[in-house]
Amino acid sequence: MKPALAGAAALLVALIALIALLAAQPATAPSPAPAVAATSEARAPSAAAARFFRELGNADPGPQIEIALTDTQELIPDFALREVMDHYLLARSDAGRLQALREHLRRTLPPTASREAEQLAQNYSDYLAAHGALLAAQNFHDTPDLGRLAAWQQQQRQLRLRMLGARVNEEWFGADDAYLTQALEEAGRNADAPSANDDEARHRQHMQQVLRSATRQPPTEATARYGAQ
User: Taking the C-alpha atoms of 88, 94, 98 and 103 in order, what is their torsion angle to the nearest 10 degrees?
Assistant: First the structure.
């Protein structure tokens, strides 16, 4: 074989061997940087998702009070419902308290009961505002006259009947109203008589507190429970 042909054959053999070697090696692994970046991007929440989870974490879970419903899922406006509303409308002072109450009712009640409760919440919020304005106009002092207190009791009752209805008035304010009636009657009978014993003295002090509470906003058990003024 001529030297030129022998050299060409050797070069061809070497080239074939190189191609075979490269084919036998595994493919080069891709750079991990894009995969890591893709993973990071997948895990990073969007702005909307981040806002959702932030608001979810700051959401007020509301009072742990169960709202009563009938067997047909209709609302029962008992005192427990008033406590739920007082939690938002009296314990909170921010401008969004009524909206927060509405959202709580929507979360915890079926649609029909929720709509009824939301309407009652609006009525109750309006009542509290009207009651505050009416009370301010009375200009009561620390120890108001019993006659003026009795007249004020009647005004409150009429306001509640007009804005909340007879059933809600009885369920939510019946006990308060009965206590005030009793306190007015006892104060009229025992104005100058000394207490017979310590129990009677404590009872009179309690009744005097009932009279003082009647001239506050709101004059209810919620005043003591939530510290509302």
Answer: -80
CB atoms within 10 A of CB 75: 21
13, 6 contact by CB (below 8 A): no
Nearest-10 Cα torsion for 189, 194, 198, 201 = 40
Q: How far apart, in Å, do the first and last CA atoms of the chain sit?
A: 116
AA identity, residue 185: E
Measured distance CA(225)–CA(91) in Å, rounded:
9
183's tokens: 């306190």
Q: Are 110 and 74 in contact (CB under 8 A)?
A: no
Rounded Cα gap, residues 42 and 101, in angstroms: 36
CB 201 within 8 A of CB 186: no
Question: In tens digits, what is the pLDDT along the chain, a chain of 229 residues?
Answer: 444 444 455 555 555 655 655 555 555 545 554 444 444 443 444 554 444 434 444 456 778 999 999 999 999 999 999 999 999 999 888 889 999 999 999 999 999 999 999 999 999 999 999 999 999 999 887 767 899 999 999 999 999 999 999 999 999 999 999 999 999 998 888 766 666 687 877 887 888 888 888 888 764 443 444 333 3
**3-state DSSP call for residue 71?**
coil
